[in-house]
Write a structure and sequence with these properties.
Strand content: 15-25%
Number of domains: 2
Number of strands: 11
Structural class: alpha+beta
Distance between the termini: 46 Å
CATH architecture of the largest domain: Alpha-Beta Complex
CATH topology of the largest domain: 5'-nucleotidase,  domain 2
Radius of gyration: 24 Å
Helix content: 25-40%
Amino acid sequence: VQMLYADAELSSAALFTFDSNLVKGPFKKKDVAFIYKYPNTLVGTNITGANMKKYMEWSASYYNSYKEGDITISFNPDIRGYNYDMFSGLTYEINLSKPAGERVENILFNGKPLDDNRTYRLSLNNYRFGTLLGLGLVTMEDRYYDSYELLQDAGRISALIVKYVQEEKGGKIEPLVDNNWKITEVDLESPFKETIFNMVRTGELNIPTSEDGRTLNVKALNVFELIDEGVLKVSTYVVQTGDNLWAIAEKYGLTWEELNEINDLENPRLIRPGQTILIPALP
């Protein structure tokens, strides 16, 4: 919608509410209001590749950095979900092993690296255009399109969505996923994963929210922290002469990789008699 009406090469948008959704069936104007609740208008602005990268880094600060033992990805409690933008027209990766400001990698436009010195046409809503003005990434002179100036209320993005579905899609839309970006350098697998997820499902374990309750999932569920807190139960096995990690894992229905991860062994091939091995209590 945004790229079409602003004649743009790139686009950015946020998910305004965590429960935004469209179900199969008739698509009504109230559904548009559910997925796009604000009266924003559409802006097209010129932006350099260098400043586009800064904008993308600003957005990626929404995530908390990954640490070993995390089995979920979490969000910065000081940043609202509507301030996390996703981008179209580019492919990119967000490396959560790195600190905020250094995360966005491998940004490609039409298969080639984003050019710091080139100017690109970006479509976004008027609220985010104001953000970029405040960050010094664009100026008013960079703005080349304003839907409200041209169309007044018919230029609101919610109205443009209706127009797009009716005129461009013949009144019918289907779910499409670009898969143009991904999160990297995280390992969310753990032998405890299903146990922890079941505890969340049954209410035994809560996913933290910000103090004011407005930002969800502000702290990752971390295996090592949950063990230290006594939330996750583990048993122990004392290594006997002739044991190896592979045989111990098989005895408990695990893999040696899982035992190695939980015990943070320096060398899984070298365990010694009398050494204590933590065994996860699986469901």
